[in-house]
Amino acid sequence: MPMPMIDMRDAIGVLLAGGQGERLWPLTRDRAKPAVPFGGVYRIIDATLSNCLNSELRRVFILTQYKALSLNRHIRRGWSSLAGFGEYFEVLTPQMRVSQHWYQGTADAVYQNIYSIGNERCKYVFILSGDHIYKMNYRKMLASHVERGADVTVATMEIPLEEASGRFGVIETDSDWRVLGFEEKPALPKPSRNNPQACNGSMGVYVFNTQLLIPILLADAEDPNSSHDFGKDILPRIINKHRIFAHDFVDENRRGAPYWRDVGTLDAYYEANMDLVDVSPVFNLYDQEWPIRTWQQQYPPAKFVFADPGRMGVARDSIVSGGSIISGGSVTRCIVGYNVRVNSYSEVSDSIIYNHVSIGRHSRIRKAIIDRHVTLPEHTEIGFDLEADRRRFHVTDSGIVVVVREESLIEEPESAQ
Fold it and tell me: In CATH, what class is 8-277?
């Protein structure tokens, strides 16, 4: 069926990027969660912003809050120049125009910026999250919204029941995809009509008619019993009163199974990065039809040093970013950021190395995340004795070792970008 004629200039995006990211600690000690590096040269937020740009959703408010300096700088450098006349990717910090509090929930964050939204001439508002990795054409979602005469549309995808239990909002629909019920993170999710082994999980992507969104937010703000969250409060309140539909996820990644990752935990974040270094990457960064964009600082090309047969700089199944030198050491299944030096006789595997890291000679690193500006001395071993690692570093239950600088006096300096 052909897509109905729509104009993306009728819509604006509100991208929620203000979460504290407690489950990504200590990576969020010095930065906002959406600003956490991803794939060597990107930030997590770049995936959603690229979806906006590729979908021609070119009016986007980005709501930031906690430790937002580096995130604001990244957006200013990499995204503000991409919009043209009447278009923008604009950061909105908490202004407290309608409240004396910081954002109390996802709905409250949008409510506190209700004047900015109301001043725009738009029929539709997309509510987006800044901490998911996926490729989605929002134009297709808006077309579905318009065709069905919906008041609200919720993006969903099939998630195995055991995976969704206690983790995802679950949507119940009829045969026309009209939403009949919604449960926030149920222990026993209701199966999908089409697949008894899976449920329709909410992706945290919504389209609202603007004329409905504003009064709903006003009513929610006045409710003292509300937690001011779209999933917990807004959707359950309006399901029986308005036309709410689900939009089944159409993946632009084109790699078989639909790809959508919530990278809100260290394990999920690590696995999403490792998805990039497969022989045929599960998440495709090299697709010119749906590119992932970012801002990149200028560095010289990566270099691999061959000193003698015993000192060969080698990278296998890895991403190595500009300015990095693999100097007689080896990296295997790694994501290597900018200006990293892996010195002679060192072996690094299954790891994520952030910018400006130096790994000393004769070191062995396995299944680790090394934060920016960390210098590891010679003969360092990480990932081989987890009990010893726990005495020095943060180690997840699955055995991922996270190494950060011992002190942090400032939030992501210019040289860290």
Answer: alpha beta
